Predict the 3D structure of the following.
Amino acid sequence: MKRQNYINWDSYFMGVAKLSSLRSKDPSTQVGACIINQDKRIIGIGYNGLPMGMNDDDFPWEKEGDFVNTKYPYVVHAEANAILNSTQDLKGATIYVTLFPCNECMKLIIQSGIKEIIYESNKDHGKDFNQASLKMMQSAGIKARQIKVDKIILEPVNED
């Protein structure tokens, strides 16, 4: 008889997105994304962070202040990184993301051909950029649904 308490596909792929988010250096918001194709194969993963080759210690991580002295002009979002890291065409793909995409990421999602967004949090619901994101998503015919996944606890092991 097969094991009965294995996780479902949604939990598995959101778990990969959550695991990816743990790579983020952002002290306030860690986001991860996992893109799968129609055969349920992972074809892209990403997390929010600075562009490749930039030193994390040379740029600000603050949320407030002059624009140039905050994280916002420098950080690449998880969805964008997952799209850029993808190993194949994204037409008809599904993206699992720990935070509902902003309007800038929604443009990339639409343009890449992704047809479904599965997200865990929508903490920015009602904000202007979130409303724009929803409007574009609906216009493009992209499906979205929110899921909750039990906490995944991963802690570094100290091997002395």
